[in-house]
Amino acid sequence: SKTRKEFLIGQGFASSSQNRENSWFKSLFVRKVDPRKDAHSTLLTKNEQSNLYKIQFHNVKPECLDAYNKLCEDVLPSIHVDKYYPCELVGTWNTWYGEQDQAVHLWRYRGGYPALTEVMNKLRQNKEFTAYRKERGKMLLSRRNQLLLEFSFWNEPTPREGPNIYELRSYQLRPGTMIEWGNYWARAIGIRQHNSEAVGGFFSQIGDLYMVHHLWAYKDLQSRDVTRNAAWQQEGWDEVVYYTVPLIQHMDSRIMIPTKASPLQ
């Protein structure tokens, strides 16, 4: 049987100009996705024991942002390095462009849902973390989170030396199109690796559904512009954009600056 990666890559692109012209009208609408007997999470992840990720969005009172960052720097790294908790802090950022006065945290749980449950149960008994949550609550306007899995064809995020800026591009897909999205990006990701800008790719399991997050790293805004423009000179990139845009209901972009506590700098 084919591996998941072979399945994704084997779907292929429409290669001829005739096929492309014939499909132009159809591409304006959601194309029918072949019925599957497997959940898309099974087909798109690395294996059955895939890492689980949690992304948190905290909207902070503007006057409290510095104090909030200091509080997080004092507490979150201790959880990250403590082997008692089967979780890792992948990155923590403040938004620079996009939603203002917002903090974004990305956690990884090796072992999936059981690891998440174990961490949550242990943290409830952690007096320092309980005090942190109480103090943090005074500084927040709102907060939300999502549980994510990682695409099999993306890198697993690993610590980076800085300085870098990070772009989190979030896509709300039309229901039923996640496999199709994966088919195209399984081939396309190689086009976006030339400057090691690809950090991680994820899709939601709990929270806002049919959400995809792509995380990119750049030296600065100018290098982001140069790198993104260079992708259009690579064979196949125009097809990726052409065929994936109709799958999207909504998209947004955040430019983020890592905090001192972030393993991704």
From TrEMBL:
Localization, UniProt: Mitochondrion matrix
Which is an annotated Pfam family here? Answer: NIPSNAP
- The record places domain NIPSNAP at 166-263
Enumerate the UniProt keywords alphabetically.
Answer: Autophagy, Mitochondrion, Transit peptide
Q: Reply yes or no: does the keyword Protease apply.
A: no
Q: Which GO terms describe its cellular component?
A: mitochondrial matrix
* Gene3D superfamilies, alphabetized: 3.30.70.100
Q: What is its main location?
A: mitochondrion
This protein's record includes keyword Nucleus: no
Q: What does this protein do?
A: Protein involved in mitophagy. Accumulates on the mitochondria surface in response to mitochondrial depolarization and acts as a 'eat me' signal by recruiting proteins involved in selective autophagy.
By sequence similarity, the record places it as follows:
Belongs to the NipSnap family.
Listed name of the protein: NIPSNAP domain-containing protein
Organism equals Periophthalmus magnuspinnatus
| Lineage, uppermost ranks | Eukaryota, Metazoa, Chordata, Craniata, Vertebrata
